[in-house]
Design brief:
α5 packs parallel to α6 and α10 packs across α11. The chain is globular, with a radius of gyration of 20 Å. By secondary structure, the chain is of the alpha/beta class. The N and C termini lie far apart (43 Å). It has one domain: TIM Barrel (Alpha-Beta Barrel).
């Protein structure tokens, strides 16, 4: 009797190293955004929520970067801990605010030495006042596209950029905003994540005008469930875009009932997420503000590939 062949051990699927790898798989995903803990934050609570959100199996998680680099070292430390202690793929935010080119090159070299390969390249908001005048560092960069090129020149990075469904608040027009976005992509961006928005048509119009400009860079929509009326105010401050009037009216009608506000916010986030999935978005990026519950409630109502 012939001896049966020895069993071949099952091959473990290699863990994707970059967001580019995740997107190349062509499987819609969810992703998450965290903020580095501030000195006054309950860091243990934040890490408990990070662990709770890990159960959603996100395609990647991004870690924000304070204005002027105020949390730079903490950003890298948090990303390193996520890579070391969880199954999640971290992306480090990097801005050009208040940095010389020499300083940026040095920091990018540190990222490369630390094995960080996923970076979200942003021009960034003015430190202290997001609505203040944006002033270029005398030896710095003017546009995010220049930061993308710098990253491309200094290592094997997977680079993401920002996109603005309404338009960047400092852009002169939608056309001007589209041109700047396409410039970032042509400088070497692999993908984009939008600023938060609440109307799917805003995202779809952005995608259409980018394609019309000859650019096919994947654009991942960012969502933030409304849980309080303060969320609406904060969204306008952070995105520079007005909250949709028809939704504002619905929230105003229940503003005196915090539970009703939250229920309406979760309901609307689910509807928005489902519409974006139906329209073929490559993923859904949830801005968590380091809380788990609202994001988990929304994702529980979605079809998310395993």
């Amino acid at each position: 009797m012939a001896t049966p062949p020895a069993a071949v051990p099952a091959q473990r699927t290699a863990r994707p190293r970059t967001v580019r790898d995740r997107l190349a798989a062509g499987v819609p995903m969810i992703s998450l955004e965290f903020m580095p803990p501030r000195p006054t934050d309950d860091a243990d609570r934040i890490w408990r929520n990070v662990r709770k959100l890990e159960s959603l199996r996100p395609g990647f998680v991004s870690v924000t970067y304070g204005a002027g680099g105020s949390t730079r070292d903490n950003t890298v430390a948090v990303a390193a801990r996520i890579a070391r202690e969880t199954t999640m793929l971290p992306v480090v935010h990097l801005t050009a605010v208040d940095h010389s080119v020499r300083h940026l090159r040095s920091f990018v070299g540190q990222l490369a030495d630390a094995g960080v390969v996923n970076v979200l390249a942003l021009r960034g908001d003015p430190p202290g006042d997001v609505d203040g005048e944006w002033v270029r560092h005398p030896q710095g960069l003017t546009y995010a596209s220049e930061l993308v090129a710098l990253l491309r020149d200094h290592g094997d990075f997977c680079v993401g950029v920002a996109a603005f469904p309404h338009r960047h608040p400092r852009s002169a027009s939608v056309e001007d905003d589209t041109a700047h976005f396409v410039a970032k992509c042509r400088a070497g961006a692999d993908y984009a994540i939008t600023q938060m928005f609440f109307d799917a048509d805003d995202y779809l119009r952005l995608r259409d005008r980018v394609v019309a400009a000859g650019c096919e860079t994947p654009i991942i929509p960012a969502l933030m469930p409304v849980t309080t009326t303060r969320t609406i105010e904060r969204s306008e401050q952070l995105s520079g875009a007005p909250f949709p009037a028809h939704l504002a009216a619905r929230f105003a009608a229940v503003a005196d009932d915090p539970k009703a506000v939250r229920a309406l916010g979760i309901e609307q986030a689910i509807l928005l997420a489902r519409r974006l999935q139906d329209e073929g978005a490559p993923g859904l990026h949830f801005i968590t503000f380091n809380y788990a519950k609202a994001t988990k409630e929304v994702v529980a109502e979605l079809t998310v590939p395993g």
